[in-house]
Amino acid sequence: MAASPGTRVGPYEILALLGSGGMGEVYKATDTRLGRTVAIKFLKSAYTDRLDREARAIAALNHPHICTIHDVGPDYLVMEYLEGSPLGSPVPVENAIRLALQIAAALEAAHAKGIVHRDLKPGNIFVTQAGVKLLDFGLAKLGAGGDGSDDTLSMTQPGTVVGTVAYMSPEQAQAKPLDPRSDIFSFGLVFYEMLSGQRAFSADTGIAIMAAIV
Question: What are phi and psi of 55, to 5 degrees?
Answer without folding.
Answer: -60, -45
